[in-house]
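Supplementary Data S3. Sequence and structure tokens for construct A.
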Amino acid sequence: MDSLMAKVNESPLKQRWTSICKNKLLRFAVGELFGSYILLMGTQASGFGKYGIVAGGLSCFFTLSVLIEILAPVSNAQLNPAITPLFYLFRGQTLYQSLVSIAAQFIGGFMGVLTLNGFYTDKLIVFSNVEHSFKLAISEFIGSTLLGFVLMIATHRKKHIPFLVAGIITAGVFIIPSCMIVNPMITVMRMFMNVTFSINPLMVLYVCIAEFLGFFVGAILAEFVVVEGEKDLYSNIDEETPNTENKMKPIGELPDEPIELPNIEKAAIINDDTKTQVSNQIS
């Protein structure tokens, strides 16, 4: 059995598959396409079934938290064309990775639209004629600012990212009048779904602009008000600490050099010598 597994691992097909899986651009494309497909279905299906705002909020929370936890190591789990530029500007994501991610997000979202329309309507493509007031764009600006603020802080601290992002979006579903769309991909795809939360094409343009502006404002607030302040605080702590080897490190990061364990035999010899010296002094 072991020899068979060794032959399989050494086969050209296995090596080719491994090289494909390690291709970063392909991982970004597949991760964002699959994630956006599931995201759109998981967050928009409640509108077709008319389950209400509570069901919509719960589906948003569980869908987002699971997708972010699973896809963060694959493609940073952006799933949002307004988040992708922030990761490019502030989180070291490359231009090619960002462009591939945005294209995959819209393709995955459109696939989700076709699936939902096929499940709940008689047509795969339905154009929305639902009218909304300009308050929709204003509420999306506020919601996008909140999400951008929380997202940039969470990705800086690298703690509880799925819970924080899914939590703020779920809270916005119950608070923000627009029910916290905060995703230009989903906003555009709502043109092709004729349900109560659909958006007509002209309002889609205004809402998308408001979302991009909101994310940028939230990211600026996070970077220069909170994140930069934390960096200054940590540097002051390090300067006051005499032992510079014990500086703060992110959770899970290993030390630069291996920790040297004490020599037990040497310690025992020193201990015996100390006892001999003490007994000689007493005598």
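Construct B, processed identically:
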Amino acid sequence: MNMNLEWYFANITDEESEAAFLREKGVFHRERSCLSCHQQMQLGSRRPNGSPQWKCTNKACGARISARTGTWFEGNNAGLM
């Protein structure tokens, strides 16, 4: 993919598209396993501040972690955009 700043600003228009771009480039995780029960986690539910989070698919567990956990964005509360 030939990417430059013009492409970036034309295609990355909100935090959702930014997060998808970062997953595609391997900066954010594409999939996660729960640290508590080792079941698959699902991305998409939102925290009260609007940030995406991973949620365990095991209803008995229901653990949640920030999408930033385990990336170089961990501990940074600034918006992506």
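The mean pLDDT is 83. Residues 6 and 12 are 10 Å apart (CA to CA).
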